[in-house]
Amino acid sequence: MSYREGRFWQPDVTVATVVVRDGRLLCVEERVNGNLVLNQPAGHLEPDESLEHAALRETLEETGWDVRLTAFIGAYQWKAPETQRHYLRFAFAADTVFHDPQRSLDEGIVRALWFTPAELQAEQARHRSPLVWRAVADYLAGRRYPLTLAQHLA
Question: Which fold has domain 13-147?
Answer without folding.
Answer: Nucleoside Triphosphate Pyrophosphohydrolase (3.90.79)
